[in-house]
User: What shape does this take?
Amino acid sequence: MTQSVVVQVGQCGNQIGCCFWDLALREHAAVNQKGIYDEAISSFFRNVDTRVVGDGGSISKGKICSLKARAVLIDMEEGVVNEILQGPLRDVFDTKQLITDISGSGNNWAVGHRVFGSLYQDQILEKLRKSAEHCDCLQCFFIIHSMGGGTGSGLGTFLLKMLEDEFPEVYRFVTSIYPSGEDDVITSPYNSILAMKELNEHADCVLPIDNQSLFDIISKIDLMVNSGKLGTTVKPKSLVTSSSGALKTQHKKPFDAMNNIVANLLLNLTSSARFEGSLNMDLNEISMNLVPFPQLHYLVSSLTPLYTLTDVNIPPRRLDQMFSDAFSKDHQLLRADPKHSLYLACALMVRGNVQISDLRRNIERLKPSLQFVSWNQEGWKTSLCSIPPVGHSHSLLALANNTCVKPTFMELKERFMRLYKKKLPFSLVTLSDIPIPHDLEQGVHFVACTRHFSFQISGRFL
Amino acid sequence: MSIVTVQLGQCGNQIGFEVFDALLRDSHSSHGLCCKRENEAYQASCKERFFSEEENGVPIARAVLVDMEPKVINQTLSKAAQSGRWKYGQHACFCQKQGSGNNWAYGYSVHGPRHEESIMNLIRKEVEKCDSFSGFFIIMSMAGGTGSGIGAFVTQNLQDQYSNSLKMNQIIWPYGTDGVSLFLKVSERPGVVALACNPSTLGGQGGQIRKSRDRDHPGDLMEHLVPHPEFKMLSVRNVPHMSENSLAYSTFTWAGLLKHLRQMLISNAKMEEGIDWHVQPPSSGLPSLGKMSLNKDLHFNTSIANLVILRGKDVQSADVEGFKDPALYTSWLEPVNAFNVWKTQRAFSKYEKSAVLVSNSQFLVKPLDMIVGKAWNMFASKAYIHQYTKFGIEEEDFLDSFTSLEQVVASYCNL
Assistant: This one.
């Protein structure tokens, strides 16, 4: 069994990371009744005997003593990390796996990437090496960050290059939160474009997500639940969105529900690698099957169902509805409409009590309404994991390598150009005394490239 | 006359388990329908062929399990142990942690050479345990990374090291809408026979074909069905297909079963359901000269050789004349040479009568052609190529495979 290390960078990254670890613990607690440290848990947690002083005390078998997350927490200001360390999850994190500073990056990619990058390079490398050493067989780094800020965006992407150099055999999966239209950070277009360039070159797979879509999904669920449309068939609190029963404090923070969705995404992504099933799909297979060309590695994700039904015996119609929903634009975690764009490849990761025949039937049913590129008409990758997520009887994660990412990137480019044309607010950017314009040009060039690529694919190969 | 099974990858291991389980269940089933002595002889030979004895009487399968990630092997081993009736050898498996990532190149160029020695050692140990070793049965899928990549590598090695024994590859064909990076690289090596199986008709068939070999030397199978090294793709069909619950209420006649089987052969049907009864062999009895004429419908399945295995009650009365029709066969082999039948009174599992057809015919032409077409499309767009060149498979290797496959398709097409 392989292990993965989660690197959470910046405020957004750490908040999502916190939700993720909470959910992961709950999932493993539900599955592993005996409390034995097994291979499934070892993919994200270490078993440590805390009575032993020093770094040793790692136990590979037997009962669980104390679980430590395989995580590295990085933030250039202390607020968020401190809160995590004072919260109920404090024992899950190894205090030696943190890197914090005081002042923050000031929402400036250049500060995050260049200034803090060079300042903390050695420390970061050391922590990463340590966490890799604790792993028997490290397969993947999961990086969680936002694109619009300074630390997540700048330092997060600086990490990528470092990981590629130090651990070339290990996959780099990046979960990036893209800024939405009404973003609270003015310089977010600059930060995002600069970060995009790094993602393009150094990441193996990127899962772009934006806040607006998450927000829309939450609103829709609330509407469904509160309007009583589905009557008693829907449980009021879905585990996808709420953390009821979680270790965290009762009063919810504003982004909690949204972060939970992303956390669920990561758990479902790794479920087939951690748990058994009749059709396994490991993380390296995701990259292999969904990335036909090295730079086109942006996967639009969607998660269904979003609420739990109280009726345990799900009639087939509900199952089919789950598949249909996965392709609807309301369920995507990015503002995108995959149904009306071109698919390069698509992966369906199913969890729970679903049969292969159901899977096949639904693929056949949905195929006519989807457009696949000409040389990959049968571009489906499927996996079946027998363990469903907590509180659900089955679930589906769809990953689509689809040209519908184009509008998001184009919009980003537009917003960037608007700022750039007015040379706004360059004073903030050139604070760090580095020739920024060159990078910005490159960033814009990249977005143009992506557009070119997707046009190529849709135009030439169709 | 022992056979060692090599199970590769997730698919190979899952199917391998089903085959051994079916074998043993059949062996112990009570509907022998034959005299006690014959039944005992059957059980003994079945056991000896596929299992070796352990001290406490639990048979151990003669198998080597190979996979690049541990989940499936663990599952398979525990399922076997739980059944209580048989199990796998404790040290008969080889596994790694990371998997092959659905990448043929990774399986073939990286995992293969790296683990060559360990895997071949395991196989050698199994072979040494056999009193009289007759051949290998290799189960793998085409679409994955381990099954197809390491499968190809291991088969090559086996051919080098054990060139005199039979090697039969049971390959699982990818389902119609499966396999995103579908890359077929079937290396054609002498002595290797490919038994293509569609996922819809699995373990039972495997069990059937192997049981049938109780009576004769597996080498005979080769001899009958593979007259020329260029043509070694076999297919297996069996009748009847029925759920166990309905078996008690159905009766079969040999005439009916054989008629269905024959039509399945000539219309290239995979299952008893939905046979196309309109397809008929050419009427004059002489195969058309020169190229295939248009009215010799491409639906008609010409065979090179066929083997029918009949098991069950009153088997001696079964009439197989329908299979001796020269119209079914190519012109370069007389029906008397091309067709063989093996009969045994001992029934298979709960079926009172069952018939299996192993055929070397054109059945594979269409699927192979389709896959080659799709792969070529992808290759022309250079899609996914970087994933393979990363591990040393260059474009020339792709082109070589395409050429050899086109050759096979053409040869079968021109029958």
